Amino acid sequence: MPVSVPHRYRISPHDPDAHLFEVQLTVEKPDPEGQVFTMPAWIPGSYMIRDYARNVVSIRAEADGRDVPLTKLDKSRWQAMPVQKPLTLVAEIYAYDLSVRGAHLDRSHAYFNGPCVFFAVDGQEDLRCEVEIVPPDDPAAAEWRVATSMRRKDAAPYSFGTFEADDYAELIDHPVEAGHLTIGEYEVRGIPHAIAIRGKTRVDMGRLCHDLETLCERHMDLLGVPDGFDRYVFLVHAPGSGYGGLEHRWSSSLVCARDSLPLRGDDNVGEAYRTFLGLASHEYFHSWNVKRMKPAVFMPYDLSAETHTGLLWVFEGITSYYDDLALVRSGLINESSYLELLGRTITRVLRGGGRHRQSVEESSFDAWTKFYKQDANAPNAIVSFYAKGSLIALALDLKLRSETEGRVSLDDVMKACWERWGNSGEGMPEDGFEAVAAEVSGLDLEDFFDAAVRGTGELPLETLLHTHGVHYRLRAASGSSDKGGQQLDEAKQRRVWLGAILSDTNGKPTFTSIMNGGPAELAGIAPGDEAVALDGLQLTTANADSRLKAYRDGDELDLVIFRGDELLTTRIRLASAPTDTCYLELDEDVELAVESRRLSWLHG
Ligand SMILES: [Zn+2]
Q: Helices (H) and strands (E) in the chain — how many of each?
């Protein structure tokens, strides 16, 4: 039987100072009609068209030592003239995007996601791929190491060399980081896991690996080891500030602030480290929920255009629910720390009037053009399928637990979904999750899902949390930096507000979002207006909260702004600040039945 020759890719840091990778691709048996090559328009997990082909700076093809003409077919595709011999494509690709969905090359490191650099061979996407990852010839890069979950063919651990993937879809699901890396390793159920951190760090790697092991173990307890899950790598970029993550089948890319990682001698879990653990937990849970079990319309991904699904709230929202829940269930944070996180999520949702305009199903469907392309009107027009999705998961979990006397929880629904769609190669149909939830619980959940997923009313969280011995409280914010989650004396809460978000843009205090129906909108203030003075005194982003303390509901004041280069004065009538800030309190004095329900929810 003839053995098919794999597609051979070669990527080298061709010109780090110009941020150019050179990517070669040799196709042994090109399409006799003229081989077509495609660059993805988006990367799975980040639902926005990014048109990675825009970073192709030059491209040519050759066969048998001769140039082969290429024709550009559209924004992402090229076709070579028909040839009988192996065909090689050579391209220079600009890489200067430090985000988890990009590619970035300079003298200090090389990072790339496959969709940014690897062309697909149309019609031969199922063929095996090999990639030679070439080190820079700069002697300063002699100590570089390579971290990726891609299978090594002849490359020693953490070194350059040749890697392989079963097909194109797998090839582009292994981000690669090469540079000066701090690496830690641990095992979960015998499966090797690693974390590779780029950026100067004095992290306590022993503690970090111990905590990640605890966390990963917890997730594995819930849904079991996926088929073929034989390795995992967290690729972490830790600059001074930043936050983000993107999931893959055997790895994830995370960006976190350097100071969020634990240092030697620290043994508490402060807010920043809790945020890092929540991010790692989120991306790891995606190994099940979206990387393997996924919407039917993603089977397979069409990376040339938007793919609409109403289910992103299941894949991002439920993942967002389990990310923090796993922290308390694994003992990394305590109950009150978890309730603080929940209170903050509820606060984020309550502060957007868009929750009354858009359902999470609509938000999922329109993720491509709305959630991922937020503008100044976003708080009024859209709801996050992450944040509200996680609260729907919470509400569903508590409802199932209380209405089945603790017999069924969201864990059971997730297990049933995983059994059906986890390893089967089939995707979840649009009505699949709701059907399984009803089936597993034996409850009629139609009204619940209609209201929570397709409706725009408030979720019944206060009542459901009460059945689990948790008080739901609302108060006004103390100011613009108040994220909620904690109780606060009434004297420290603001009495009035402007109904606008004021933040520094190009060094100037700028109204970036105006809340529908709020004082700023009623005064004719628009996004982009620069704040100058309120009631005759300078108004800045830093002093706005304290300036407002002098006033009461109904006070009318002069507000001076720049709109463009025109100075305008308007009257603003201040209104009382909304009670849009939530905090949750454990009821210390509950019946045994309620306490055991709460224990079972928070500790699994
Ligand atoms: Zn996610």
A: 17, 31
